[in-house]
Amino acid sequence: MSNRIIAILIIIFSFLYGLEAYRLKSGFGSDSVGPRGFPIILAILLASLGIVLVFKKDPLKNWPNLQNWFNISLALVSFVIYAYLLVPIGFIASTTLETSFLSQRFGAKIWQAVLLGLGSSLFLYFLFVYALQIPLPIGKIFK
Question: Are residues 30 and 81 in the same domain?
Fold first, then answer.
């Protein structure tokens, strides 16, 4: 039953996403596909996934218990806080905090979580900024 609920939500989301993609306007000098081609393809693939999930047998018979729902909710709230902290304190600090928090929730010791958070945030920062040349926020408090 849980697969079907998620599948219906995915189908509804993909329909709304595809509708918004269809509304995109092409600017002057754009290619023949325009800006809506890729999002429409994603919406079709997402709807296909939802349709497959509707007919697939559900391996999960039981919903998560109350403690797991608490952890899921806590992770969701932490991602929202992470998004709000990204610009003010920067990518490295906010990613370190987020990764450390999630690692600790998954059972890592605090020192392991902090090391993992710092290492992964530094690796990702250098990967995006220097290898891929995608700028990331340094943080308003560090400027």
Answer: no
